[in-house]
Amino acid sequence: MPRLHLGAWVDSGVDFLQRHLSWLFDAISALVTGLYDGIHAVLDAPAPLLFAGILAVAAWWLRGLLAALLAFAGFALVDSVDLWADAMSTLSLVLVATLVTLVIAVPLGIWASRSDRVSAVLRPVLDFMQTMPAMVYLIPGIIFFGVGVVPGIIATIIFALPPGVRMTELGIRQVDAELVEAADAFGTTPRDTLVRVQLPLALPTIMAGINQVIMLGLSMVVIAGMVGGGGLGGAVYRAIGNVDIGLGFEAGISIVILAMYLDRMTGALGRQVSPLGRRTLAKARAAASGAAKLWNHRPQPAYAVTGAVVLALVAGGLNAFGGSGQPAAAGADAVGKGRKISIGYIPWDEGIASTYLWKELLERRGFQVEAKQLELGALFTGLAGGQVDFQTDAWLPVTQAQYWEKYGNKLDDLGSWYGPTSIELTVPSYMKDVTSLADLKGKGDRFKGRIIGIEPSAGAMGILKGKLLKEYGLDGEYQVVDGSTPGMLAELKRAYEKQEPVAVVLWSPHWAYASYDLKKLQDPKGAWGKGDGIHTLARKGFAQDEPEVASWLRSFKLTEAQLTGLEAKIQEAGKGKEQQAVRSWLREHPEVAKAA
Amino acid sequence: MSTLQAEHVYKVFGRRPGDAAAAVRALRSGAGRDELRADGTTAAVIDASFRVEPGEIFVVMGLSGSGKSTLLRMLNGLLEPTEGRILFDGQDLTSLSRRELRHVRSTKISMVFQHFALFPHRSVLENAAYGLEVQGVAREERLRRAAEALELCGLAGWEASWPDELSGGMQQRVGLARALATDADLLLMDESFSALDPLIRRDMQDQLLELQQRLKKTIVFITHDLNEAMRLGDGIAVMRDGRIVQQGTAEDILTRPADDYVASFIQDVDRSRVLTADAVMTDPVAGSCACGCPSVTADTPIADLCAVSARVPHAVAVTDEAGVVVGSVPQDRLVAFIGDEDRAPVRCAEVAA
């Protein structure tokens, strides 16, 4: 079979679109961002518990007292695990995606229900949209829209559109043909037939479709977290990156709470808006008695609205008072004046350390700093697209050469702050007979044929798989396991404690060399190439926008002792306390704060 | 008042647009329905012509697949005839635009369906008011008129109920009220009573006849039940395989079936309830008038005639409205008629002796 260059064609197609339709993507991006910001501003404004109260009143009205209590308890839980802001971002993301999806899906569904030809054309397209792994949409999504919420929302829309269209079409098509004929026989116009007969009768099915859209949207937000979508998805992605079971569970349960609330409420809303459903409800309520009556008690809409409004007003009032007490930016160094800077980082130890160091330093000088954890590819596209201002962890010129080649012309190199580095395969010192890469040959069985790798997008992994294994003839005998840095470190720790054979991809500087007794495998053929410097890369134009920050970054330097010390400090403090660790480290090393 | 007329109406369903016209040409030159089916076209109605006078109930009778429902749907333009014209109120419906056709449907023609086709998301009153809502009648007025129509159909007090709370017969009354509320002159009824229980069906037939006495609508009624056709129809058309095989009054069809098909059909009909004295009487027998015995009129059903004949010792006199004798029915003739026996009486040796 000749190789079809399908991927290449799609690639060049995407390039073409990016070159010629960027205005369109910018417009879409601006629209979606505007929608998201608007909704997010509203949802995020009230105090968490008050807003939970409003949501509970809505649940009370739609489903009854028990649902209200459970909803309140659920949202209180989200707040108590400190994920409220993330939950609201996620909710905004889902709402925007749902809104846009419905605006597209319902008319499409109506169109498809009226024309067999449209339906026939649409069906395979919808199949394609629904079954293509949703992550695939993120790739062109990032290229067209940059990292942030937009590609996540767009991917969600594409992924969630099919059930919306299908259920609308199905709902309308399954309306009894005799009823449509009856409407027709009384001279109803096609439009009125749709509005008076078909849509009302299709409503339960359409609402089920909307419910599906929301659920799919929620399932997409985790994936959107990978491209800087933030919210609970970001928390989950962070948890995966750090192998943090606790955070993962908390974020996961928050998503579940949100999902259950949205699912039950849209289900109830479906019954509420459809005339048939309303009748069934009224009957069921009349039949209920005793405790069931109390649990299912639902306030009159007027009371419900009043309750929600009062809570909303209280919320707004509290927020207004709370807003006046914002902490003033500190000191005479406050050149930032609250300007925003966003730093992107990959969860590698030196990246986390330097990023949080800079976050702290810049915040002391009055900037508002946002630290976004991103996937390496997303980080470079984000920088090139201008959504991220700078990153401090580019390994150049060797390891990340492929990224520099692709994006270098859209980036500014603010110089190296640490070097030289090295990348190596490392084994514990108790592996007495292995000292060089060449020694690995023939010992595949002992290592179970595995070399524990890190993120597949890391440059080291490319060199290892593409060049090093071949040069040392390890091809076929060893397999490089894709994973993550925390995963690799966890595996190293596990094996080290049991004194098992293990080979990992590691680099210097790294705190692991201080914590364990390890041996870097020699590379007599020089396959790893020369050492890198760790560079700070900024988006094109950042140096002009923030000349002081750029000059601070240019003059930034750390020694190996300083860096490993900082890394160890962060490692000690634990997840979520990076910035506290940086602060206490800075107290011990005032010279760094001064120098920068 | 308005007359409904169908002139050489054809309806052919074909896959391609050109098929239908070609099929009509083939049918005109004598091709059969089966030959067309081989080409993938279906001739649902072939050369149907009839005329319905104002205030008349015209029944189209046929088995399923005979094309009667298709024919009905061409009468209000839900289906467009492939050939031929439908004239209503002097207007050729086939020449109207969609918009004009909708206007005619909303004001002049209404329809009652086999499975009632009530809107489940509307109350009984809102269902009855539907046609008026389409016409754009103001809410208060249309609810008032809908309530009147419901009362006319014996549903006063059920306005606030929902269709699924009603029995089948009551649901069809709502369907009837919905059709009557618009004050349309022409009522199309598509097997409207077929889905009902026999007893309810009979009630509904009686009610329709009673309403018709008062309202004098023009009604086209579709059924597969010949008894129903005989009971309701002023004129009956029998359809088979898309063609109208016989048209006439109930008596015409019972006494002079046009072909074996119609004849086999009428076997199960209770002739004594459909046929009247008119069908069996002969010239007046001299002297049968002055005796003062009970007499009958020409439209007395045979069943009732038998009851009279059983008590009268001679031929029963048939009189007109003024009491003038127009004919007589001898008992042997009556018995022969019911027994469908047209041979001469046999001679019995013992009686003769």
UniProtKB/TrEMBL annotation, chain A:
Limits of the ABC transmembrane type-1 domain: 87-266
Superkingdom of origin: Bacteria
Primary localization class, coarse: membrane
Residues spanning the membrane: 21-43, 49-78, 90-114, 134-161, 213-237, 243-262, 302-321
Membrane topology: Multi-pass membrane protein
Annotated compartments: Cell membrane; Membrane
Classification via InterPro entries: ABC_Gly_betaine_transp_sub-bd, MetI-like, MetI-like_sf
CDD domains: PBP2_OpuAC_like, TM_PBP2
Keywords: Cell membrane, Membrane, Transmembrane, Transmembrane helix, Transport
Entry similarity comment: In the N-terminal section; belongs to the binding-protein-dependent transport system permease family. In the C-terminal section; belongs to the OsmX family.
UniProt protein name: ABC transporter permease/substrate binding protein
Biological classification of the source: Bacteria, Bacillati, Actinomycetota, Actinomycetes, Kitasatosporales
TrEMBL record, chain B:
Family: Belongs to the ABC transporter superfamily.
Domain of life: Bacteria
Pfam families membership: ABC_tran
Name listed for the protein in its UniProt record: Betaine/proline/choline family ABC transporter ATP-binding protein
Domain ABC transporter: 4-266
GO terms of molecular function: ATP binding
Keywords, comma-separated and alphabetical: ATP-binding, Nucleotide-binding, Transport
Provenance organism: Streptomyces flavotricini
Cytoplasm among keywords: no
